[in-house]
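user: can you give me the structure for this one chain? tokens are fine.
assistant: on it. calling the predictor now.
[tool input]
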Amino acid sequence: MDGVFIGPSDLSATFGHVGDPFHPEMEKMHVDLFARIRKAGKAIGILTLDESRAKKHVEMGATFIAVGTDSNLMVTATNTLRAKFMGGLPAAAGPKGNY
């Protein structure tokens, strides 16, 4: 095994925080997991759709980060295309990713 990838939504659901992958309790767990993974000499990965959170994870030591999902990217692109063809009307908001 070369690395460990943290899936924040799956992890938070396991610990009773369904829909809140960055609950304060989970944030503490991420810090602990990052430290344990780093101590084991393995690569650290995590998923986040939020740019500022991704930067925080890099600062914490993440070596690879998934910054988008297929469904999120498709909704964003579709909303952009819709807005373009509707004369620049504001596009409906895409899914709210707290990953």
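assistant: here you go. The longest helix spans residues 24-39. The chain has four helices and three strands.
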